[in-house]
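queue> holo job accepted (beta-D-galactopyranose)
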Amino acid sequence: MAAGPTVASSAATPAAEGAGELNVLHWWTSASERAAANHVAARMAENGLKWVDGAVAGGGGGPAIKVLNERILRRMAPKVAQLNGQSMTEWADMGLLLELDGVAAKRNWSKVMFPQVMAQVTVHGHVVAAPLGIQRINNLYLNKAVFKRLGLDLPNDWDGLERAAAKLRAAGITPVAFSDEPWQVATVFEAMLLSEAGPVLYRRMLEQRDLSAFDDPALERALKRLRNWRNLALPANSALGIAPGERPWTDVVADFAAERAAMMIMGDWARGELGTMGLEGERDFSCKAVPGTAQAHLYSIDTLAMLAGNGGSQADQEKMAELLGSATLQLGYNRIKGSIPVRRDVPVDELDPCAQQSFHLFANPNTPRVPSLVHRMAFGEVGKNAIIETVHRFALDPSQTPAAAQRKLQGLLRALAPKTKASP
Ligand code: GAL
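queue> job finished
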């Protein structure tokens, strides 16, 4: 049995599989994502299971989900797929997902896991996926070496960030690491929306889909912030205003790590990646929250669903699900990935200070936990893609006013049909 994953087999042509072999379709292809997946594969190998890798490159998983759809239509479903958030409901409704109620009951998931996690993986009363980790999205990373070298204090608010940006620029350093890739632009935007709107209004907009909430001036302010932030990503030595470009998120992290840029807003996966580059949270970079969001946890939960109808594999799929939820795997995987365990009973003092902070915040019942739009916690694939596109167009088109983008978003939400009742 191999100790690690086999090299990516083409996702469209799965190799024939033997007993214990599970082909896994996912989008973890960066160094840290790969290492985290390898960790899972190694634990599986110890338990007589083989992770047959079906990685589809593309941060945020857009391409992977397209491949998954195609494979399902061609009746070539993988046995296991990364399937986060709301899409799970759609897939479960079609009877495509194996129900894992037996595993959940045996391992007492409803007790040991966070209630939000169980809510996320439960559809119509059935557990339909195994949760792996919780990512915090509203992180502001500041490169401490750069700030120290320039004798700058670490800013805590937007004005402070703007002032620091001016000094960074004067010193020839691009203030902000950024990418124009749509899902990345929108991930930054949702953190800004949380900052301007606060958790209650954010939820009214994206969870309850209350159209009147889209009239609020906080939305226009968040759009303005997004535009300002992107402007701070224009190269320091360029008077021409060269666009940041649609670069993979790993390039953005590399710019930040190599001190080509000093500030970055990104989900916890960035911390995993910085870890593989030898940078540690709080020692080399701060893990502050995006201004105005310190009390809130804008989250995304990574989950693996087991596809139904893979005759003969159910026992292996259940065994894998059981393993994914175990305390030791939770700790090992999340330490590499940058996320935090989905269980409440894991000794998190072994994780870095940023992860501990995220964990304690998430665990505190008074913390507003706010679902990520971009990472499918509030909308399924189609809805979130439409919103991402609208935000992306605005960010890249200086002729579009924030007020116009606000109206477009409201119109889009109207077309996507508001929910009839608020979610619990
Ligand atoms: C998210 C996912 C993370 C990370 C990130 C970048 O959707 O939840 O685990 O992989 O994309 O690819």
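queue> Residues 45 and 86 are 31 Å apart (CA to CA).
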